[in-house]
Amino acid sequence: VEVALLPASYGRMPAALAAVDGGTGPALAKMPRLLLVEDDYLVGMELEAGLTEAGFDVIAVVGSASEAIRLAAADRPKLIVMDIGLAGKRDGIDAAIEIYKTTGIRCIFATAYGDGAMQARAKPAAPVAWLPKPYSVEALIAAVCTALGELNR
Amino acid sequence: MTAAPHRFLLVEDEYLVAVLIEDMLAELGHELAATAASFDDGLALAQTGRFDLALLDLQLGAQATYPIADALGRRGIPFAFVTGRARSDVAAAYAAAPILGKPFRLADLAAIIERLVGQGPA
Predict the structure, then answer these.
(1) ipTM score for this prediction
(2) pLDDT at A81 over 80
(3) Which of A33, A76, B57, B100 has the greatest number of C-beta atoms within 10 Å?
């Protein structure tokens, strides 16, 4: 019953997502699909577990800009949670800009820097939110819910 | 920049936050010597663990970490409280301790470390 209300309720009640059949059943196919880009394996596992438990469909956790670009193009997630510092030459902002230009998919950026220069660099990626570190699972879920509400507007 | 690396005790009950803080310390060139997710583990480590500096989540569930801070104080190990709440939530007796408000930027963490190093070991 609650699942019909989900798009309107993203912003205020993340618990509703977890309440739907415990995350299983026919509602699952409608759950927003997320891609997580995080190069710390342990952090990635925690993010995936927390978001899955909250009812989201996490399609993958990848650790590099190139994998993020490839998966975003192939699997078309609704939203990406993007860590900025990544292993490899290109960082999360590079990846997000290319993804936005080629697919229109937008990101929540997780960062410990939070400076104006970084935000300016990220502007061409049309970031939907910034998630300052260190964030709790609850803060992450709240940011994802708010971002999805924003995207559905 | 402070002279790296310093070895830290981190007392934090939320695993994700602990791992993210560990990453931030690593990014500044420091290392985590020990992590405690519970009050008892934190207190035991504060009494006997080997590290130069400590970061204490102010609140572990229902329990405040002041006794852990006291144990560190007795050994002359500088510490900072980490909290998502207001500075005024820290008990008056600990008003002199540096406070790192969550979330924080890498630069904020670096500044707090600088301050702790300035206090020096006893």
Answers:
(1) 0.84
(2) yes
(3) B57
